[in-house]
Amino acid sequence: MSRRRPARLQHIAGIGVDRMGAIADASGRDFLRLENLDTDIPPDSAAVERTRRAACEDAANSYLPFVGQTRLREAAARHVSRTSGVEYSGQRNCLISAGGLSGILNVLLATVETGDEVIVTDPTYAGLINRIRLAGGVPRFVPFVFTPGGEWRLDREALRRAIGPKVTAMLLMSPSMPSGGCLDGQDWALVAELCLAHDLVLILDAAMERLLFDDRTVLHPAGLPGMAERTVSVGSAAKELRMIGWRVGWIVAPEAFMPDLVAVSLANVVVPVGIGQDAVATALENSAEGLSPYVEELQARRDVLLEELAGLPFGRPAGGWSMLLRVSDFGIDGAQMSTRLLDEGVCATAMSGWGETHGEQYIRFVFANEPVSRLRGLGARVRAALRPR
């Protein structure tokens, strides 16, 4: 059969995580698993038990309500109200999605016209970039930059220069995946200034907003003057609540956005399975209690990587659960480094397609799925892989 590939797929990049995971799974070897987006830290036990009970409840075996279960919508709205300082209602401002990324796609489809430019940081998770393109948008990259061993910083002047007549939205994440870079108060002030001056929508990927290191506090841009009416927040049960397999997310938006968001949602995936929704509400309501030990463990793992890779050209994560090492300094790209690391017993993913400037020259280490004891010794393996061949 002869067929033409849809133009929207022309620039869709592979993620790479699934391929690396399959290699490690099929090998039978005890790889250090730094390639994936999972975590070995279990979810809230009450949420797991609620899931078990829901599997036996007829009411949970349903798509209804089509906008998500009431308790979860209210819990998500209260959560975003707490982080932003803006009062949201579950009934008027919240919609449940089948995972955070499904929510992001729905927001893009509801707000971005074909050909519109959407500002993202460079690097940005390839899954977000792909969804901009699927929605007909064009990613406009603004660099995160770092000095080796230092934190990632937003290039504010580059952000100013990126604003043009086709830019209609920003899609930002802090801490950002995969860099772990965080936007500070001055960064968000500039984002707000530009959104107000140019009538832009701000789509906030809030999947990791509370996974912050070194005593940072959450800065939610909807609370800035003039931003509540133009900020759409998308949350997820995956990263903060560690309920990756539940595939539950939420969209909290100004009321004016809701009709279009609901229309897109009903035409796309609708909602996640009913079995998982009340469990996520339970986890979200309990999350303040269990978050600190979890963040402390992630920071401890980050700190081990800082020690192990000291002297190498990495960007220091300020949050999240991954770190980037710039291997182009050694005359190789991320794909070559990924292959070499397999020989050293380390499974890690290359970064091709994860940005415009920051992409194939990096290797990414996800430290959410390996304990401190197993991360020790990584430096020797990395340096062995970097030696000239």
Quick overview of this protein structure:
By secondary structure, the chain is α/β, with parallel strands linked by helices. The chain contains 13 helices and 14 strands.
Largest sheet: 8 strands, mixed
Assigned CATH architecture of the largest domain: 3-Layer(aba) Sandwich
* CATH topology type of the largest domain: Aspartate Aminotransferase, domain 2
SSE string: HEHHHEHEHEEHEHEEEHHEEHEEEHH
Overall SS class: alpha/beta
Strand content: 15-25%
Q: Which residue ranges are poorly predicted, with pLDDT under 50 across at least 5 consecutive positions?
A: none
CATH class of the largest domain: Alpha Beta
Bin the helical content: 25-40%
What does this structure look like?
The protein is an alpha/beta fold and about 400 residues long. It folds into two domains: about 5-45 and about 290-385, Aspartate Aminotransferase, domain 1 (Alpha-Beta Complex); about 55-285, Aspartate Aminotransferase, domain 2. The protein has 13 helices and 14 strands. The protein has helices spanning about 15-25, 45-55, 70-85, 90-95, 100-110, 125-135, 155-160, 185-200, 260-265, 275-310, 335-345, 370-375, 380-385, and strands spanning about 30-35, 95, 115-120, 140-145, 155, 165-175, 200-205, 230-235, 250, 315, 320-325, 345, 350, 360-365. Strands 2-9-8-7-6-3-4-5 form an eight-stranded mixed β-sheet, with helices on both faces. Strands 10-11-14-13 form a four-stranded antiparallel β-sheet, covered by helices on one side. Strands 1-12 form a two-stranded parallel sheet. α5 (about 100-110) packs parallel to α6 (about 125-135), α5 packs across α9 (about 260-265) and α11 (about 335-345) crosses α13 (about 380-385). The chain is globular, with a radius of gyration of 20 Å.
